[in-house]
Amino acid sequence: MSQGDSTFTPRPVDADSVSILKALLEADEAFVSGSLLAEQLGVSRPAVHGKLDKLRNEGFEMEAVRNRGYRITKRPDVLHPALLRCALDGVGSEVGLLYFPAIDSTNSEAERRIASGEESPFAVVSNCQTNGRGRLGRVWHSQSAENLYLSVLFEPNIPPQQLQHFTLWAGICICRRLQAYVPKGALKVKWPNDLHCEGRKFAGMLTEAKMDADSIRSIIFGLGLNVNSNPNEFPTAIRSLATSLHAIQGVPVDLNEVAAAVIHSIEEAYAVCIQNTMTAQSLSEAWKPLDALAGKQVTAILSGREITGIAAGIDESGALLLQMPDGSQQAIRAGDVTLKK
Ligand code: BTN
Fold it and tell me: Could you tell me if the CB of 167 is within 6 A of ligand 1?
């Protein structure tokens, strides 16, 4: 589909809202005077009031005290583009941000945007996908605004080998970063593209690339992350297999902060691959403590045949190693694996 066919409209990141939020968030519990905000923005005091009212309508709660100023007492618990931009700047992210209240698929939108000349790298973030795509042609259920659907697009122009471990490495960086939000559960990567906690999936990764003869022109990394949803409300078929960060920790987590943390982790994983600082050994070492399958009996398809073995980490190419009953080792390079109960 071309850009013009898209019926989805992005909600722009309002630069004034970003400036106001930065000033208020930096001040933390302290009040920020209206005149300071007006001076920073180069606008009148009434114009500042107007901007603050707009933020209130968008889910912020503010305390206003005469002669002292304003402070934020509550942030929205849904995605908010200006708040997300503040959080991205706060973690040092350098990606552009495109926020859509709803979209067919953030991966598809990233593809359309690059075709119509959007400057990369950029992230497409949404509350809801009408046609969320999973791996191997599956559907990714994307109706809950409490979850996160995002894609980050890069234009590397480098040989494909250099990015062959990008998804695995992104899984590692995302798990490490998210662990701080949910110390109650051990976050793991389930080869090749799932993030798990105690045997239940809380996120899935979908990487899609466009190639030239010998280089990757663009690479889109998509992540569906269950953040604050209640797994009991998931479709029956996946209910017992899925979890969310909220369910793991027992309390809701800040959606905008988590989105910024995840996007920055994806940038981090990309930088490691691009700068060629990742060796095969550093990947398998980083993988070990996060390996959801290690030591477990799993079934995979190899050359059209079902085989069962004990998962024994990944090799230099990122393939999953299976220790077979006859003592041999088999490398699984693609496809899915299932855990034997
Ligand atoms: C999987 O586990 O099969 C991968 C799921 C990937 C889902 C994400 S949600 C954001 C991005 N847009 C999509 O259409 N899919 C990915």
Answer: no
Structure tokens at 269: 């994983």
Joined tokens for residue 65: 């005290």
The per-residue pLDDT for range 119-166, each reduced to its tens digit, is 999 999 999 999 999 998 999 999 888 999 999 999 999 999 999 999
CA pair distance 32, 24, nearest whole angstrom:
6
Do 174 and 150 touch, CB atoms closer than 8 A? no
User: From ligand 1's centre to the CA of 171, what distance in Å?
Assistant: 13
Question: Running DSSP on this structure, what letter comes out for residue 118?
Answer: P
Please give the distance, rounded to the nearest whole angstrom, from the Cα atom of residue 127 to the centre of ligand 1.
13
Report CA dihedral (39, 43, 46, 49) to the nearest 10 degrees: -70
Contact 298, 336 (CB under 8 A): no
Q: How many CB atoms lie within 10 A of CB 201?
A: 18
Ligand 1 pocket test: which of 206, 207, 225, 226 has the largest number of ligand atoms within 8 Å of its C-beta? 206
Q: Give yes or no for residue 132 CB within 6 A of ligand 1.
A: yes
197 CB-near residues (< 8 Å, 6+ apart): 182, 185, 186, 187, 188, 243, 248
The C-alpha atoms of residue 249 and residue 237 are separated, in whole angstroms, by: 23
